[in-house]
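FIELD: query
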Amino acid sequence: MKPSSTLPEFQRYQLEFTAHIRDPGMHPRPAGIEARRMKVYNELLYNNVESFLLACFPVLRKVLGVRKWAKLARAFFSTHRSRTPYFRQIPDEFIQFLQNEWTPPDDYPPYLWALAHYEWIELVLSVSNRSTDCPVEAAGDLFNGVPVLNPVLANLRYDWPVHRIAPRRKVQPAETCLLVFRDSDDQVAFIGINAFTARLLTLLEPATLSGCAALQQVAMESRHPDPARVLQAGAARLEDLRARGAILGTRRA
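FIELD: result
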C-alpha cells in the first residue's frame, strides 16, 4: 500500500523508504537512491534484528534450517510492530509475533512456538531482577514451615518434549513439565519434573501454605490411595528442590 497522497512529500518518502527496508520484495526502492546504498541500509537493519533472534533461538534456527528460518525472520521483520525500542526485548516481541500474529505454513514443525518459548524463557530468567518480598530462613523446616520459592523461577508445561528437540530428531507430542530457575551462581538451570511436582510448586508459589498442607492438597486432588506416601515422597522432593536452589528456605515469622 502506497502512502496517502495527502501526506507531505517528505513523510511519503520516509514511509516508502522504511517499507522497502522491511520488505524489499514487496516494496520498490524509493526513487533517487542508488541500489548499492539502499542495500547497505537493508542489510544493516535486518541483520541487526536477526542477530538478536539468533542469540536467543539457536536451536529453533538449526531445526528450521536456513530457508525456513530466513522466511520466518523476514516475516517478523516486515510485519511486526514492536511495542518497545529496546533491542534486548526483540526476543520478547518475537514470541508475541509467533503466538498472536503468525500462522505457520504446513511444512513448519507443529512444536515451533513451544520450542521458541522454551529457549526464550532462559533469557527472561537470566536478566530478571525479581527478588523475594519476605524474610527467609534458609535451613527452615520445609514440611511444617512455609516454603519460599526462588523468585526467578518458571513452572512450565508444554505439549511437546521441547528439551529433547534437535535437528533431524523425530519427536512425538507428550505432556512435558519443566522447572527453570536461576541458581545462586546466576546460572539458569532446567529440571524435568512430573505433574505432581508441578502442582505442588503452583500451590507453594504464594508462600502461604506449609509444605505439609500443600502436599495434603495434592494427595486429596489426585485421590491417591496412600496419602501418607505422598507426604513422604513430597517431603523428600522439597528437600531436593532446596538443594538445587529452586526453594530458598522457609518464610521467617
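FIELD: remark
The radius of gyration is 24 Å.
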